[in-house]
Amino acid sequence: MFEYFSKDYPFPSKRNVVYAQNGMIATSQPLASQAGLDILKKGGNAVDAAIAVAACLTVVEPTSNGIGGDAFAIVWMKDHIYGLNASGVSPKKISIEALKNLGVKEIPRFGFIPVTVPGIPSAWASLSKRFGKLTLLECLTPAIEYAKNGYPISPTLATSWNNAFKIYSKNLHGKEFDSWFDTFTINHKAPMEGEVWSSIDHANTLELIGITNAEAFYKGVLSDKIDAYSKKFDGFIRKSDLEDYEPIWVEPIKVSYKGFDVWEIPPNGQGLVALVALKIMEGFDISSKSRLEIMHLQIESMKLAFSDGNAYICDPSNQAVTPSDLLNPSYIENRRKLIKEIASIFSVGKPSGGGTVYLATADKDGNMVSYIQSNYMGFGSGLVVPGTGIALQNRGHNFTLDIHHPNHLMPGIRPYHTIIPGFLTKGQKAIGPFGVMGGFMQPQGHMQVVMNIVDFEFNPQSAIDAPRWQWLEGKKIALEKSIPQSIIQGLIKLGHDVVVLEDSSSFGRGEIIFRDSESGVLVGGCEPRCDASISAW
Questions:
Q1: Helix 136-149 vs helix 200-212: crossing angle, to nearest 10
Q2: pLDDT by residue (tens digit) across 185-225?
Q3: Can you list the positions of beta strands (E) in 284-367?
């Protein structure tokens, strides 16, 4: 059992994997993990649990996600895989010309301009309708209770909240931002570790979403409030944008990597970047290479993959180059030939950070969910719809105003999206969900975790614990301080511009749940870089 997880490696984990038979939940917040487990024990399945956890995370980790954000999911249900793209579209009233008339030269991070239609409530409702055993309201009840009664702030959450408070205090100017401070501060300060925070507005909104299966959000009282708020402050989003929105069920894309199938959601998500990088790496014989040589090849492969992602990932309606084009074996081989023994600069953009939550769930019947949701860049746009607790996302920030780029701003389309759930299978059998959240670190984390599992035979916990690298721009890379000095110095000699970071918060946060197809035993690993936990049954 789990033979391919058993081999030792140079960075031994200090924590053991968690095993269970009846169900498992892995998230970045213990309260959310426990809520998901309670739903399983109540008779819900892995999808019900995922919805419950996702809703809880909007309450217990609002620094990274909220009701007004987007979501993606990969669902393994009854031996079949499904994909859900619940990312929102740009408002019909917005355009490059409209922004130019306002004197806007680049899409800002804060305010109404980057706000796109929130997809999260539609994700919950769609997943519940198609696969759930319990009602949506039952699944949202734990989150409603936490929002209504409050909960004590965990350590990593307190740090993130305080950091966000400093950023938002500096950048949010105008009456439209008053409701953010009213909602997310206590006595005009960020909540401290151990301090209890609650939001009755958030609780009431979740209850409305649950009772109406999200109709109140897109066609009812909540959409009216979003519309009125936007009109008051000359925003672009309108009730008609919400009424016309639907999430999309999609066929996940995959690559075969050394006998395993790695699955991602197709563009507009950036999962394709991880798949391209893995296929480039697959062509190298790393069996006799040192850890330094392998890391160099990984970094260069990821640079090439990002150059493609930045150039071609966009709303499918604008897509001129398809995933199959970029994954074509001859194209991959040509890209691989560009990698030299020293660091190179390829034609790439400049990735930046973000705020996201990832979760994985599994039930006793073999059903599993890989789910991710986000407001982007922390709390999102800095806008909270008054009286609702709905923090609006700023995903439109990822559009470009370059009309010649496929990801340029247009009305009613989805932007390049950073959040990506992952899934692993072998043959016709599921192994399980995995993910590494964190802006443009996500495909980098996916590649590193998959290689840790497949190439180095790490167990799930070790695969997450292992030190990570992150490509930033050009030849610049960031390394976690736990990477040995010999490797750090070796990368410098190979021409990489290396920065070693004391703080690991920018290296992503991952969760994994795998299942042995013969015994049904579940094994999980969770992130040491945050407040993560696994609840198992």
A1: 170
A2: 999 999 999 999 999 999 999 999 999 999 999 999 999 99
A3: 356-363
Give, to the nearest 10 degrees, the angle between helix 329-336 and helix 291-312. Answer: 120
Torsion on CA atoms 181, 176, 113, 143, rounded to nearest 10: 40
Helical residues (DSSP H) of 61-176, grouped into ranges? 96-101, 120-131, 136-149, 155-171
What is the rounded end-to-end Cα distance, in angstroms, of the chain?
19
The structure tokens 């105003």 sit at 401
Map residue 490 onto helix, strand or coil: helix
Sequence-separated (6 or more) residues with CB below 8 Å from residue 515? 362, 366, 368, 430, 431, 432, 521, 522, 523
Query: CB 258: neighbour CB atoms within 10 A?
Result: 12
Contacts of 420 (CB under 8 A, 6+ apart): 72, 264, 265, 269, 270, 271, 274, 372, 435, 442, 443, 446
Tokens 């480039």 — which residue? 280
User: Can you tell me the distance from the alpha carbon of 65 to that of 447, in angstroms, rounded to the nearest whole number?
Assistant: 24
Measured CA to CA, the distance from residue 111 to residue 113 in angstroms comes to 6
Four-point Cα dihedral 409, 414, 416, 418, nearest 10 = 140
**Class of residue 519 by CB neighbours under 10 A (exposed 0-12, middle 13-18, buried 19+):** exposed
How many of the other CB atoms lie within 10 Å of CB of 26? Answer: 33
Least confident window among 41-45, 249-253, 439-443: 439-443
Sorting pLDDT into bands at 50, 70 and 90, what band is 508?
confident
Question: Model-level pTM?
Answer: 0.94
Phi-psi domain of 2 (left: phi exceeds 0; alpha: psi -120 through 50; beta: other): left
Widest pairwise Cα distance in the chain: 64
